[in-house]
Specification:
With 207 residues, the protein is an all-alpha fold. It has helices at residues 11-26, 33-40, 54-79, 83-100, 102-108, 120-142, 151-170, 173-181, 185-200. It has 2 domains: 11-49, Arc Repressor Mutant, subunit A, CATH 1.10.10.60; 55-200, Tetracycline Repressor, domain 2, CATH 1.10.357.10. Helix 3 packs antiparallel against helix 4 (83-100), helix 3 packs parallel to helix 6 and helix 4 (83-100) runs parallel beside helix 7.
Length: 207
């Protein structure tokens, strides 16, 4: 449903919500400031109070997405019983975020928004989200369950695996495989991450 009014100071959030709805319904190519204004139920000039152009709006959505993702990851890490358990929980939180915010998740990783010289805020927000994972890996190193000389590589491998699972789920492929295996997709994600943990920490005690 279109929002036809907004409180003073809430125009920016209204436009961002409208942009996400437009992406979900018609795809990224449909986005222009004029179309977003129409979707939000505001004047065609209203977006320019907050966004210089289309790229600025998309960059803001990317920043917002990474900040939300970082908060979800931090919460999962804080609630985990051990640093090693946190890695599995972080993957679950990452995949869950992609399912809860599919349009924004896909937008966050668009190549044109990953250029630090053009979109420094989005780049920094992405780094901050990744840092939650890197700190979790560092805690595992400190606990002696992961090797220090492979910490950076393992953090990137963990991210790659979680991102791949999220993408497969959004594309419907993981649901298909889960059904074939007689399990539920969240359980399959958990099992995959635990299997990966066992491969890289063969001497680690069970969580």
């Amino acid at each position: 449903m279109k929002r036809t009014s907004y409180h003073h100071g809430d125009l920016r959030a209204t436009l961002m919500d409208a942009c996400l709805r437009l992406i979900e319904s018609e795809g990224l190519a449909a986005v222009s400031l004029r179309r977003v204004a129409r979707e939000a139920g505001v004047s065609s000039g209203a977006p320019y109070h907050h966004f210089a152009d289309r790229a600025a709006l998309l960059s803001a959505l990317s920043v917002d997405g990474f900040q939300r993702l970082a908060a979800d990851l931090a919460a999962a890490r804080a609630a985990a019983a051990t640093p090693l358990a946190a890695l599995t929980d972080l993957a679950a939180a990452y995949v869950r975020f992609s399912r809860d915010h599919p349009a924004q998740f896909r937008l966050m990783f668009r190549p044109e928004l990953s250029q630090p010289e053009k979109h420094p805020d989005a780049h920094l927000a992405g780094d901050a989200a990744f840092e939650v994972l890197a700190e979790s890996v560092a805690e595992c190193v400190a606990d002696g369950v992961l090797p220090a000389d492979r910490a950076e590589i393992l953090a990137i491998a963990w991210w790659g695996l979680a991102h791949g699972l999220a993408s497969l789920w959004l594309d419907g492929q993981l649901d298909k495989r889960s059904e074939q295996m007689g399990t539920h997709t969240p359980d399959l994600v958990d099992a995959i991450m635990r299997a990966f943990t066992a491969l890289i920490t063969p001497t680690a005690a069970p969580d």
